[in-house]
Amino acid sequence: MAEKRNAKNVVDYDKPGPKLPANRLKVDPKFVRNIVHVDADTVPGAEFYSEARWIVPGSESEIKLVDSHTHSFGELIGFFGFNYDDIQDLGAEIEITIDNETHKVTRSFASFVPAGVQHGPLIIRNVKRPIFHFIAADTERYE
User: How far apart (Å, rounded) are the C-alpha atoms in residues 103 and 93?
Assistant: First the structure.
């Protein structure tokens, strides 16, 4: 059977060996599990970037995803809890800093950081249940 014409637009894997900037910190893959990575490398011609991950319980220490940084593009950052009885309950604490203002969040949330605005560090603590984490940006690649 011939491949469908838009099959290249459907990504069901993580990008192998992504080159990410120094502000993106190495994390233990036992607790931060990448699902998919969409950018101009995984979808030729894409003008958009996104990543999805599961963050799972079990880490004895906090999980720091990024240090303070800025981008030339806007970025959507989301964390969503996995508690069917209270879908707004994050099941963890996220510390997110935007423009040097720190927020401690315990509910499912999304945040938009405009281009040129400092953000980070981004720290996850006390994970009790799996958390779905999603980032997206209007850029071909996360740089």
Answer: 10
